[in-house]
Amino acid sequence: MSEVESTGKRERPARRAFTRDQVVDTALAILDEGGGDALSIRSVAGRLGVNPNAVYTYVASRADLEREVAERVLGQADASLLAGPTADWRDRIVDFATALRLRLLEHPAVARLLMTAPMNGPAALEVGERLLEALADGGLDPDAAARITYLVIVHVVGSVALEVAETDGRPPLAAEADRVAQRRSGFDAVDALRWPRTAAAAGVMADWISAEQFEWGLRRLLG
User: Any idea where the HTH tetR-type domain is (predicted)?
Assistant: First the structure.
């Protein structure tokens, strides 16, 4: 019976089989294509060709679905970078944070999602644990390590969210150089008499969304 299942009294369509991974992959594809507003249990079900109730087999709610997607992308960043092979603990954190930034920029809607989705799944906890270890290697006490872990997460998520906010939110984003150039042209319209310091700093401010600025800020944070 490839098309139908017999009940003995009548025949009904066979249930379409799918997995949790397919649910999360589908949700991520919908986010990439349509942004956060496009994601729902119903949209995932429609893409999979199943009843929405079937999706609830794997996720309890849209919030749960968003958390699963955030987990998927966080898990794609290699947390082992925090353990080496680079000896310097600061370099290890920069390497990991840079890799995570690039991963989030590949999925701009997820960058925004991280501002609201709870980061408490296994992948998020793994990232936190490895950050704490790297900071401990730097000689920080547990309290300070915990506080700086939070600051690193804020730096990554906040930087990417602000960067994505200046785009249409759909991958692939324009090349960094093109986006910096667009920002620079926007600063050309700044009234230098009214906002002289802004006009003078326009070149640096245009570069705020760059990888160079991201690393600069992170290294200042780490001391």
Answer: 17-77
